[in-house]
Write a sequence for this structure.
């Protein structure tokens, strides 16, 4: 059950002198939907392309289904689905032609009926060429192409970028549908934290090429907390609480972003530091992500000041 | 059955908590009576478009609260109210909830007596519904 | 499987082929119509078919360029390389399919027309003397020359060099081959040049394609 389907070891990639992926040590167990999140330019696409052997690492290595990414055998590739960023498909082919083309390369598990049902559900004309489809329709074709071979591991690079809510939901449904089959694993990158929260049971956060979190979604949800402490005087100068990520101070208040400590620990510390009262704020995943990946000492872009 | 469960994915509450809360509410309102079967984990996951592990986690939470029991190989059922245990932590949470309601009421300018009457009214409605269901 | 790949990769070639065919047949009538042919025939001592040969060179180079762009440059612009490369086929096979498709495209479109033309020229009563075999071989040489241009274009498209001067090296090499052939025209010399061109570019392309990042 806890077989590792995806593993990277100190995976590093430089573009010239720019560091894109920095010693990534990642392990994804079988059977989960893993949300791969990070800000723009954090290195998600690079990491995914390295894993699929489309890019060569500067250092380190990665393995998919036990096979080195740089020497992925055709037999292994056949078991992996990959949805490219922006759903780039051959523009000159019709949906029918594309289906035949794709089926030829994933013959073992290809499900013709499943594909046909999906295309029919999406109400797409089979004979229309890809270049005459809208972005959303192209994404739907791409989803059908990715799911029809019933991949053991499905890797999707920002599949819902720029799509409307209904098509985004179809992608989520597709992932849930796939994961219900025995031993399937999904890794998808996204900027829509609501989607990630909905379908993932695992979250991987990378920031500036560095792996920041790789844990169950619930762990992440429970770990990142915001605490607001109010003081009668100015707050203490040094905050020595465990797991402190950010500390913002105003005249009589202290706002802390913490990773890890339990509520009791926070209460204890609040008492010790002489806070008048404290409040542990429940953040949603998006706020947690923003705080978690914010640079130190960051402040709001626009700060309201009372005159 | 699953359709009345509303998932809000931008919320501060984790999704498994949302699911557990809404099911327990339904049990309290007798929309789900003891002995009723909850939908299978996979079915609910597929209908709500959420991860099956999240549903399983919600069911575990309900089971820990004694609201449902899982029979292996058969499914998850709403448990007999007599067999439900309530521990101190649950009651703690309950009193905290009441605090928020009382605060809100007082801020609205309601008097103590008004709050008590309101509470009694609502309670009566719940009890009525329960007896109605039993008579069915 | 390979067949499917070949068929699909050649789809781009089909339209070109059809075009080439059409234009070729026009040239055929133009090149072989008595009025226009008589003069060059007398002037050059060459078979009239050699005149069509000039057109063959141009079409062949054009086809090479177009196919090179179709097979290697357009996937770069439309970013379909990742989609193409992730499948149960090794990079060797994918490259092989493209090159085979291009070769077939050349043979089917230009080669068959050339054979047909030669056959017609031999049989037709338009000509007093049947065209020498040498002319026929020259035609094939021109077709391979188109393949050199195709490979040169492919090399340019695949090159990851940052400077344009180094990027167009592949295409430049193909042009040098063409120039060298026509500057010192001897059949043996030309054949040698074309073979060298194909071998050099092919080895470069295989090496680049197998190690390239997409």
């Amino acid at each position: 059950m806890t077989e590792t389907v995806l593993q990277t070891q100190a995976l590093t990639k430089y573009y010239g002198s720019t560091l894109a992926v920095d010693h990534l040590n990642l392990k994804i167990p079988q059977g989960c939907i893993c949300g791969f999140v990070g800000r723009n330019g954090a290195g998600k696409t690079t990491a995914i392309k390295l894993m699929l052997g489309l890019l060569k690492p500067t250092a380190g290595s990665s393995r998919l289904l036990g096979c080195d990414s740089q020497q992925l055998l055709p037999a292994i590739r056949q078991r992996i689905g990959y949805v490219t960023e922006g759903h780039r498909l051959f523009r000159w082919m019709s949906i029918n032609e594309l289906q035949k083309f794709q089926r030829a390369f994933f013959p073992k598990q290809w499900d013709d009926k499943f594909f046909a049902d999906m295309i029919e559900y999406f109400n797409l004309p089979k004979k229309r060429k890809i270049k005459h489809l809208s972005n959303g329709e192209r994404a739907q074709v791409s989803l059908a192409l990715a799911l029809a071979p019933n991949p053991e591991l499905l890797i999707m690079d920002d599949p819902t970028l720029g799509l409307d809510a209904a098509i985004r939901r179809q992608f989520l449904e597709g992932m849930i549908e796939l994961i219900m089959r025995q031993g399937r694993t999904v890794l998808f990158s996204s900027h829509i934290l609501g989607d990630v929260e909905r379908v993932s049971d695992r979250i991987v956060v990378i920031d500036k090429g560095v792996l920041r979190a790789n844990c169950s979604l619930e762990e992440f949800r429970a770990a990142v907390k915001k605490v607001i402490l109010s003081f009668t005087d100015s707050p203490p100068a040094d905050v020595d609480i465990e797991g402190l990520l950010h500390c913002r101070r105003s005249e009589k208040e202290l706002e802390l972003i913490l990773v890890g400590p339990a509520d009791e620990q926070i209460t204890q510390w609040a008492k010790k530091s002489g806070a008048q009262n404290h409040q542990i704020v429940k953040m949603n995943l998006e706020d947690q992500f923003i705080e978690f990946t914010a640079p130190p000492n960051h402040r709001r872009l626009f700060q309201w000041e009372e005159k | 059955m699953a359709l009345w469960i509303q998932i809000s994915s931008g919320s501060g509450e984790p999704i498994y908590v949302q699911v557990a809360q809404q099911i327990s509410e339904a049990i309290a309102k007798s929309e789900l009576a003891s002995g009723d079967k909850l939908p299978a984990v996979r079915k609910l996951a597929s209908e709500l478009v959420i991860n099956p592990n999240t549903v399983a986690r919600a069911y575990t939470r309900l089971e820990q609260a004694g609201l449902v029991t899982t029979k292996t190989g058969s499914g998850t059922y709403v448990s007999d109210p007599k067999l439900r245990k309530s521990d101190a932590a649950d009651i703690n949470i309950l009193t905290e909830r009441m605090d928020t309601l009382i605060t809100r009421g007082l801020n609205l300018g309601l008097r103590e007596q008004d709050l008590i009457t309101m509470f009694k009214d609502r309670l009566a409605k719940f009890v009525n519904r329960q007896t109605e269901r039993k008579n069915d | 499987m390979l067949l499917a790949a070949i068929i699909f990769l050649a789809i781009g070639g089909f339209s070109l082929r059809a075009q080439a065919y059409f234009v070729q047949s026009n040239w055929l009538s133009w090149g072989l119509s008595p009025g226009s042919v008589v003069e060059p025939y007398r002037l050059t001592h060459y078979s009239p078919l050699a005149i069509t040969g000039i057109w063959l060179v141009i079409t062949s180079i054009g086809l090479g360029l177009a196919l090179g762009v179709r097979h290697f440059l357009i996937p770069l612009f439309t970013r379909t390389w990742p989609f193409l490369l992730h499948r149960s086929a090794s990079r060797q096979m994918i490259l092989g399919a493209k090159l085979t498709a291009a070769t077939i495209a050349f043979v089917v479109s230009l080669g068959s027309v050339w054979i047909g033309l030669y056959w017609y020229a031999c049989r037709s009563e338009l000509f007093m003397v049947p065209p020498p075999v040498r002319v026929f071989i020259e035609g094939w040489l021109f077709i391979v020359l188109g393949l050199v241009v195709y490979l040169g274009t492919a090399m340019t498209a695949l090159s990851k060099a940052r400077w344009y001067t180094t990027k167009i090296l592949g295409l430049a090499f193909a042009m040098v081959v063409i120039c060298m052939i026509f500057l010192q025209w001897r059949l043996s010399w030309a054949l040698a040049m074309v073979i060298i061109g194909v071998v050099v570019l092919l080895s470069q392309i295989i090496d680049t394609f197998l190690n390239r990042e997409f």
User: Anything to note?
Assistant: DSSP finds five helices and two strands in chain B. The first helix of chain B runs from residue 15 to 28. The interface with chain A takes residues 7, 9-16, 42, 45-46, 49-54, 57 of chain B (CB under 8 Å). Helices of chain B lie at 15-28, 41-48, 52-64, 88-107, 112-135.
